[in-house]
Amino acid sequence: MKIAIDVDDVLADFSGAFIEFQKKKYNLDLEPIKNLLYGSEWMDRSNLSREEGIRRIMEFVESDKTKNLETVEGSQPAVEKLGEKFKLVALTGRPASVADVTKKWLEEKFFGVFSDLLITDAHIFHEGKKDKGELCIENGIKLLIDDLPRYCLECASVDVSSFLFDQPHNQHFDEQEYSEITRVNSWEDVIQKLI
Ligand SMILES: [Mg+2]
Fold this sequence. Notes:
By secondary structure, this protein is α/β, with parallel strands linked by helices. The protein has helices spanning 14-26, 41-45, 50-61, 75-85, 99-110, 132-138, 149-156, 187-194, and strands spanning 2-5, 87-92, 114-119, 143-146, 161-165, 181-184. The longest helix is centred in the N-terminal third of the chain and has 13 residues, at 14-26. It is globular. The protein binds magnesium ion (MG). Magnesium ion is lined by residues 6, 8-10, 146-148.
């Protein structure tokens, strides 16, 4: 079976590093509203225009910080274990401009377990881009592990199963309405469900 694993906030601690960056550079404390980080609500709450919010995301994504992200707790041993049994690819909505950085980071942290890196380039601007469901179908992927309900729903719409990786920003989503989506609480939980 071929499994796709999302990068940010599943393998890489993107939110943690983004929060730290905003605090250091702009003295903006996003910790109390970290459940709102995906979408534009954190921008509204921080009195930032959408334009400025997006500029700050891109500034962070294209900075050296992305090269040095920490891994999500438990991800390294779990992915290594999954790699022994399944074919693994990384699937991210990151911009195409950081494809090489992402590839290098995955190789450094996950030692070549991923046979491929698929990029939708649709993290912020999705118009005209392929979604994760389409990429799963095209690449014969049977399961997506992702922290964003939006991507799990894209997969559900084309009958591809997904694990929604529990994070503060997906607590509002009720996956129980969807038979294709299963919430997982940690990497240990993923291993228990698959091995
Ligand atoms: Mg993610």
